[in-house]
Amino acid sequence: MGMQLIESRELSSTASVISLENIPQDGVELVLLASVRSDDELMNMRVNNQAYDIDVQYLRGYNTVVFSALSQNQSNLGVLFVNGTGTTAGAFGNLELRFPDYAGSSTKSFFGSMVSGSSTTTNYGAILGGRIKDTAPITSMQFLFDYYQTFSSWSLYKITAD
Amino acid sequence: MSEETPVKIVVDLSKPVGERESIIPLTAEEITERDEMAAQSELDRQVQEAAAQALADLKASAKAKLVAGEPLTAEEADTLVI
Questions:
Q1: Cβ–Cβ of B41/A15 closer than 8 Å?
Q2: From the centroid of its chain, how far is CA A152?
Q3: E strand or H helix at B72
Q4: Across the interface, do A69 and B52 touch by the CB < 8 Å criterion?
Q5: What is the least distance, in Å, from the CA of A107 to any CA of chain B?
Q6: Quick one: which of A43, A48, A104, B36 has the fewest CB in 10 Å?
């Protein structure tokens, strides 16, 4: 097993959508790491630029409240909370998402975790997992925000079986 | 919200490193979809967090009443009995 970097970027200007296309299909798992600053609060995600039917279970906490939440039949996946005033250097959200068997022909599952930066006024943390009710290989990912701020960064890795 | 024109950064991973990125302005349709998605997600988040806070408040009230020997409401009792 090996873990190989596919691409890593840091934004030098703002953007609303980041689309990773033509993802190599020779891995057994995708791993996405992101550190995001934004003036928005929730980053949404789609795969293959499709409004697939998605179920996701969260174990989520913010400040002193912890709870679980099930979101079913979503057309997009909420994957990262950021404090909405996150335009300063210390206010960001971090995310790790994994997609096992992303290139296969079975229903796609995912799991991951997220946490917002400690300098924000509302601190979010969550573990999430679920499935995308479609069997198409994941060839692209789209991440949607109001605005990603400069210095937001992400890295995409693949795990290979050799 | 920023007044800048929203853009999409497309990274084509089939291309050589250094030639992968292109920056494309969002279409009006994409902007509308993005805004609707963000509004729905925010609404979902608020509903889930309000429900979680209400449950936490109910549990706290039930606990306080138990300690004080006061009767619980049916709603408060439901938070303690599975």
A1: no
A2: 13
A3: none
A4: yes
A5: 23
A6: B36
State which residue of chain A sits closest to B50, comparing Cα positions.
Answer: A65
Q: Measured between CA atoms, how close is B69 to chain A, in angstroms?
A: 26
Put simply, whether the predicted model's pTM sits higher than 0.95 gets the answer no
Please tell me the distance from the alpha carbon of residue A142 to that of residue A114, in angstroms, as a whole number: 17
User: For A123-142, how does the pLDDT look when each residue is reduced to its tens digit (9 = 90+)?
Assistant: 788 999 999 999 999 999 99
Sequence-distant (6+) residues with CB within 8 A of A31 are A3, A96, A97, A98, A156, A157, A158, A159
ipTM: 0.86
Quick: pLDDT tens for B34-77: 888 878 877 888 888 888 889 889 999 999 999 999 999 999 98
What is the C-alpha R_g of chain A? Answer: 15
The phi, psi pair for B21, rounded to 5°, reads -95, 135
pLDDT at position A27:
95
Average pLDDT over residues A53-76: 86
Interface touch B45/A147, C-beta < 8 Å: no
- Write a three-state SS string for chain A: CEEEEEEEEECCCCEEEEEEECCCCCCCEEEEEEEECECCCEEEEEECCECCCEEEEEEEEECCEEEEEEEEEECCEEEEECCCCCCCCCCCEEEEEEEECCCCCCCEEEEEEEEECCCCCCCEEEEEEEEECCCCCCCCEEEEEEEECCCCEEEEEEEECC
Query: Between these two residues, A75 and B61, which has the higher pLDDT value?
Result: B61
